[in-house]
Amino acid sequence: EAGVVQSPRYKIIEKKQPVAFWCNPISGHNTLYWYRQNLGQGPELLIRYENEEAVDDSQLPKDRFSAERLKGVDSTLKIQPAELGDSAVYLCASSLDGVGDTQYFGPGTRLTVL
Amino acid sequence: AQTVTQSQPEMSVQEAETVTLSCTYDTSESDYYLFWYKQPPSRQMILVIRQEAYKQQNATENRFSVNFQKAAKSFSLKISDSQLGDAAMYFCAYRSPIITSGTYKYIFGTGTRLKVLA
Predict the structure, then answer these.
(1) How far is B93 from chain A (nearest CA, A)?
(2) Are strands B64-69 and B74-79 parallel, antiparallel or unpaired?
(3) What is the mean pLDDT of chain A?
(4) Which residue has the higher pLDDT, A99 or B75?
(5) Beta bridge partners of A105
(6) How many Å lie between the alpha carbon of B118 and the closest alpha carbon of chain A?
(7) Which of A40, A99, A106 shows the shortest C-beta gap to B44?
(8) pLDDT score of A97 more than 80
(9) Do A99 and B4 touch (CB under 8 A)?
(10) Torsions phi, psi of A88, nearest 5?
(11) pLDDT in tens, A27-74
(12) DSSP letter, residue B59
């Protein structure tokens, strides 16, 4: 069984540029999560999807961040424009359902904003 | 607000020995989930063990076991017979019950880096 796939693995951009991250969850997993992990910290949830619906985006900085999960499968997280403080690892995870189920994480995208 | 605290930024253990990683949390809920995740260097985070708060019995997965003290809000991870491959960051996580709006909180601690010495 293929795991959670993320791309790109690394991205370096200059501030004020846009950037997008892509995630393909495990087949059949209805719940998809985007996390941001700053250096030396634990992951912080940005947004959670149940199928196509964003059921929790309370921690997503909506002025510059956006996300979508078309057809309830793949998801894209976008930052526009990026700021220096956005440098972090962006993790995608999926679970069969959201009710206490195990999350499976992707390898993450390491973003560096110069 | 719920919080998760890992007070040990770094721990070391000799190969084949036993080590315990600490985690405390704060919540007013009675029904929730607790997890330990392992994040090896430059590799994906994976689940080590999970515990449902309503279960009194401590969860066990091979060499990994937890000491769940609900009243004390403590959830420590014990690794027995430590192996070199156990070296990683370990994160404790708390998942709240689902509230009426359908949302829940999933909170990670700051992690403990475990070094295994040969």
Answers:
(1) 9
(2) antiparallel
(3) 92
(4) B75
(5) A93
(6) 25
(7) A106
(8) no
(9) no
(10) 180, 180
(11) 999 999 999 999 888 999 999 998 899 988 888 999 999 999 988 899
(12) P
Interface contact B103-A55, CB threshold 8 A: yes
Residue pLDDT tens, chain B, 118 long: 789 999 999 999 999 999 999 999 999 998 999 999 999 987 789 999 999 999 889 999 999 999 999 999 999 999 999 999 999 999 999 998 887 666 778 899 999 999 999 9
Put simply, whether B109 touches A (Cβ < 8 Å) is: yes
Tokens 């009194």: give the residue.
B56
| pLDDT at residue A1, rounded to an integer | 64
In terms of Cβ atoms closer than 10 Å to its own Cβ (0-12, 13-18, 19+), residue A114 is exposed
The pLDDT value recorded for residue A98 is 62
Token pair listed for B84: 């070199």
Determine the Cα–Cα distance for residues A26 and A2; give it in Å rounded to an integer: 7
Q: Considering only alpha carbons, which residue of chain A is nearest residue B92?
A: A42
DSSP classification of residue A57: -
Report yes or no: B88 and B98 within 8 Å, Cβ to Cβ: no
Rounded Cα gap, residues B87 and B115, in angstroms: 5
CA distances from B6 to B1, B3, B92 (A): 17, 10, 7
Which of A41, A99, A107 is closest, CB to CB, to B44?
Answer: A107
CA distances from B18 to A52, B22, B59, B90 (A): 44, 13, 17, 15
To 10 degrees, the CA torsion angle through A112, B4, B5, B6? Answer: -70
